[in-house]
Amino acid sequence: MSLGPVMMDLRGTAIDADEREMMQHPLVGGVILFTRNYESPQQIARLVTEIHNIRAPHLLVAVDHEGGRVQRFRDGFTRLPPVGELGVLAEKDIKQAESMAQTLGWLMAVELRAVGVDFSFAPVLDMDRNISDVIGDRAFHKEPDKISRLAQAYHRGMHQAGMASTGKHFPGHGSVKADSHVAFPVDHRQFADIEMEDMVPFERLIQNGLAAIMPAHVIYPAVDAHPAGFSRFWLQDVLRRRLGFQGVIFSDDLSMEAASVAGDVVARTQAALAAGCDMALVCNDTEAASKVLDGLGEYHEPVSQLRLIRMHGRLNRAWDSLRQDPQWQQALRAVEQFSAGDTLELDI
């Protein structure tokens, strides 16, 4: 069975009977996990293994695990600082900040891989313009060049741990105040301004092997009437053709308020896939996910299949053995020193 174009979620820490049935549907290709699904590293490892065993090739298992405000698994995992703190360090010592970014990317990814999670939706490539509350310190910096350098180092660390990286939120979410979870963000800038600033980190990481991208639920009316995630212009003309991106395009959560401009949840999914997304996320609403599976109809896109299969995690390792790994121990010390502000003595 191939990987379908829908990523769903789960209600709790175990798989309910109806969720198991949904995961066997040919339109499902992945599962995203949240804090409500987590109790401990051992429990989440069992849950991920159970998800993986449902089908072959196994369903993709993803999570938002950036650090700071957005870290779904906490107790038992290393508490990761927000990447915005790397931007602060970059003002003093860009080389040290890059080294720390690579360490953070590796540590985040290696711990998730040790419980079987295929990938985290990271890194954030948005600019921190002190405008967007929902982005804020989730962004590395306010300058495209520093974002690019720090994100490339973070990406390298993820890759070394066996995890593909996902840049978000294309072409840039940092210049709008509204939170797309609950509102309709609109960015009135011209394309040339977005291209010269916000798109730079995306372009540079694409050139360095970025595996996936998540577009923003933001409308750029001077460019296109549709939010980026529903826009053939942004996804096909710009991302695929102009930037030459050949990886996976994941929609942002289609249950978010900003996605409602495309209609009901089935219409949103159809619009996202038609625009160029390879996989559509339908989160926090089991009934909505079920409606998508019932209403989407047959879907077969061989190129998307090839892209999605590359998101499977590599370099499997056991959680219990991770604590004995000298590289993990060194990374943990570095994070503890960094979080304490001891940047001059970082053990990296």
Which labels suit this protein?
TIM Barrel, three-stranded parallel sheet, alpha/beta, 13 helices, globular, 348 residues, five-stranded parallel sheet
N- to C-terminal distance: 43 Å
Gyration radius from CA atoms, angstroms? 19 Å
Round the mean pLDDT to the nearest integer and report it.
94
Domain module count: 1
Low-confidence stretches: none
Q: Characterize the overall form.
A: globular
- Tally of individual helices: 13
List the topology elements.
Elements: E1 6-9, H1 17-23, E2 28-33, H2 41-52, E3 60-63, E4 65-67, E5 70-71, H3 84-92, H4 94-114, E6 119-120, H5 144-160, E7 166-170, H6 191-196, H7 199-207, E8 212-215, H8 232-242, E9 248-249, H9 265-275, E10 280-281, H10 286-295, H11 302-309, H12 319-322, H13 326-339
Helix pairs in contact: 3-4, 4-5, 4-13, 5-7
Structure description:
This protein is an alpha/beta fold and 348 residues long. The protein has one domain (6-342): TIM Barrel. It contains 13 helices and 10 strands. The strands form 3 sheets. It has a 5-stranded parallel beta sheet. Strands 7-8-9 form a 3-stranded parallel beta sheet. The chain has a two-stranded antiparallel ribbon with strand order 4-5. α4 (94-114) crosses α13. It is globular. The termini are far apart. The model has no long low-confidence stretch (mean pLDDT 94).
